[in-house]
Amino acid sequence: MIRHPRNTNAPAGRQGASIERKGNPAYVASLSALYGSAKPARIPGNWRDRMPDPAAYYGQHVAKLGKPNGTGWAQGVCPFHDDHNKSLSVCITGERGGWRCFAGCGGGDLVGFHSRLRGLDFRAAVRDLLGGGA
Ligand SMILES: [Zn+2]
Question: Rounded to the nearest 5 degrees, what angle is found at the Cα of 100, between the Cα atoms of 96 and 102?
Fold first, then answer.
């Protein structure tokens, strides 16, 4: 193996410069971690007010949805498991559209339901709902 004498110097010489340069990408990376990717897809501050009506939303997405009881909860077929018993309860009068599956799929609010149904993260689910995504 023959090493050119300059090669032994070059890395040392470059290292100084690359440390300086390294600062930038790291800084940019930390910024994008804070603020999201170069194309920030913002969620408007009033998104909660612009969510679909739970009654309309669940009426569309839950099979065999029944009439709500006195507290606004209705039973339907859970889309998250092979449900034959209408294990899903959804709150169609509450503004957050709560849901719960009594067969063990968990529960949450309307955004959580939509994100799970569509396989989206929270922000993507909100954007999808804001865009009228159904
Ligand atoms: Zn379920």
Answer: 170
